[in-house]
Design goal:
seven-stranded parallel beta sheet, Adenosylhomocysteinase-like, S-Ado-L-homoCys_hydrolase_CS, one-carbon metabolism, 15 strands, eight-stranded mixed beta sheet, Ado_hCys_hydrolase_NAD-bd, 35% helix, Adenosylhomocysteinase like 2, binds nicotinamide-adenine-dinucleotide, 17 helices
Length: 512
């Protein structure tokens, strides 16, 4: 039997992950239209069609990033940190102090990762683990990367998105000796070059992959398939990347075990619900300065994201309508006090339209034509397919960029609608995401890496695994001290009565 996920004495260390079932989740039509962006294809063309995850505008860090006029590509610069290392490629190493402050601020809201670091002072569960990572490079992921390093890992990192890197954070990481290859505003060619520099270093064979979107995994499959002989596992965060892994598994091409972090309860419940509950208001305010009290809003889709958005708007005094296709979620909306309507019934009167269905063409040109003057239209779903933005690119309509990420689309009679982020994810494009929520996901990623790295031969096959409830409960428990929360313990008698182990798991694996 291998090591416990929490690798030490805790209330959880009796339960191990080898019982994890490789449950495969069926995703609905996930075809995504890739954002068409001008890309600067440079000298060494490594490119393939770039993925959604790497191009979605993600500007939560934008306000902090380097706005210097230095147009020289980081690839053409000689770079060295204060210790003389040049095994990195970033925008500007001089920003390191600024980046370090950003990381320290994030650390305050990432208590579980900091707790893992404390525990690692005695033992290093990732000792010898060569981890190659591809995620957004922000203050929050820096806390994760530095935690992995504290746990004993040697990390090399690239960005999963060409716009999301906080340059000063990349500088702070490089200064501490991390091999980071990323800057804000990479070209498509730069993007693959950075990934390649992470993976392809003589004498450095990765043991673990931490991916967000699947591009790094894809690159290794395409360019260095032999590396998989020594790779112990993949941890994948995003819906897109997980979908790719299931496709590989179905085709019998997945050659190492993979952990699906995206579908863990802690990610779904917290990222989708609580993150959106806070960031929907932030995104709308930053872009439009709208006052919510008394406004009429319609939220399309009452899943986790829809529930968060609806609750936030209601709390601000807005009148909220909900649309749904699923009678169960529809009934939940009714019981939560929202009016369930068809979009066509309210489209003329509402001030704000928000899509969060994960579906396509939820708001179509006919709806857009009928909206009232000044109606705000935005999307909180994963891809930019929910609002038929392409249908607005017709000669009779005028587009006016009024602010970053804010377009007025004007009809011939003068009516205008306010389209946010051109129909892409509002919160990731126009606001920040709460650090505490990212802490929950990042902790899950760290524990998944530890588990895969330490698992004995045979515990995991070449399949995609969901995290067991036990690990979800452990991640949640690490965040409870922040709130000075006092968890009730089951008595022996109660545990027996419920048929549970006193230390959990407290719910079956299928519980959501
Ligand atoms: N913005 C963010 O930060 C963020 C965070 C997590 C997830 N997401 C994305 O948001 C989307 C929704 O996520 P979720 O967790 O709420 O999913 P979910 O499946 O729980 O909810 C989606 C709901 O939309 C309903 N729906 C589908 N088609 C519809 C239609 N035509 N009209 C009305 N309702 C319809 C479904 O019945 C479902 O109840 C996904 O694309 C997800 O990837 C965004």
């Amino acid at each position: 039997m291998g090591r416990c996920v929490c690798w030490g004495p805790c209330g959880y260390h009796n339960v191990h992950l080898h019982g994890t079932v490789g449950v495969q989740i069926q995703f609905a039509d996930q075809k995504q239209e890739f954002n068409k962006r001008p890309t600067k294809i440079g000298r060494r063309s490594l490119s393939r069609s770039i993925s959604q995850s790497s191009t979605d505008s993600y500007s939560s860090a934008a306000s902090y990033t380097d706005s210097s006029d230095d147009e020289t590509s980081p690839r053409d610069k000689q770079q060295k940190n204060s210790k003389g290392s040049s095994d990195f490629c970033i925008k500007n190493i001089k920003q390191t102090d600024f980046g370090r402050r950003e990381i320290e601020i994030a650390e305050q809201e990432m208590p579980a990762l900091m707790a893992l670091r404390k525990r690692a002072q005695g033992e290093k569960p990732l000792a010898g683990a060569k981890v190659v990572g591809c995620t957004h490079i922000t203050a929050q992921t820096a806390v994760l990367i530095e935690t992995l390093t504290a746990l004993g890992a040697q990390c090399r990192w690239a960005a999963c998105n060409i716009y999301s890197t906080q340059n000063e954070v990349a500088a702070a990481l490089a200064e501490r000796g991390l091999s980071v290859f990323a800057w804000k505003g990479e070209s498509e060619d730069d993007f693959w070059w950075c990934i390649d520099r992470c993976v392809n270093l003589e004498g450095w064979q990765p043991k673990m992959i931490l991916d967000d979107g699947g591009d790094l995994t894809h690159w290794i499959y395409k360019k260095y398939p032999n590396m998989f002989k020594k790779i112990k596992g993949i941890v994948e965060e995003s819906v897109t990347g997980v979908h790719r892994l299931y496709q590989l598994s179905k085709a019998g091409k997945l050659c190492v075990p993979a952990m699906n972090v995206n579908d863990s309860v802690t990610k779904q419940k917290f990222d989708n619900l609580y993150c959106c509950r806070e960031s929907i208001l932030d995104g709308l305010k930053r872009t439009t300065d709208v006052m919510f009290g008394g406004k009429q809003a319609v939220v399309c889709g009452y899943g986790e994201v829809g529930k968060g958005c609806s609750a936030a708007l209601k709390a601000m005094g807005a009148i909220v309508y909900v649309t749904e296709i699923d009678p169960i979620c529809a009934l939940q909306a009714c019981m939560d006090g929202f009016r369930l309507v068809k979009l066509s019934e309210v489209i003329r009167q509402v001030d704000i339209v928000i899509t969060c269905t994960g579906n396509k063409n939820v708001v179509v040109r006919e709806n857009l034509d009928r909206m009232k003057n000044g109606c705000i239209v935005c999307n909180m779903g994963h891809s930019n397919t929910e609002i038929d933005v392409a249908s607005l690119r017709t000669p009779e309509l005028t587009w006016e960029r009024v602010r970053s990420q804010v377009d007025h689309v004007i009809w011939p009679d003068g009516k205008r609608i306010v389209l946010l982020a051109e129909g892409r994810l509002l919160n990731l494009s126009c606001s920040t995401v709460p650090t505490f929520v990212l802490s929950i996901t990042a902790t899950t990623q760290a524990l998944a890496l530890i588990e895969l790295y330490n698992a004995p031969e045979g515990r995991y096959k070449q399949d995609v695994y969901l995290l067991p409830k036990k690990m979800d409960e452990y991640v949640a428990s690490l965040h409870l001290p922040t709130f000075d929360a006092h968890l009730t313990e089951l008595s022996e008698e109660q545990a027996k009565y419920l048929g549970l182990n006193k230390n959990g798991p407290f719910k079956p694996n299928y519980y959501r």
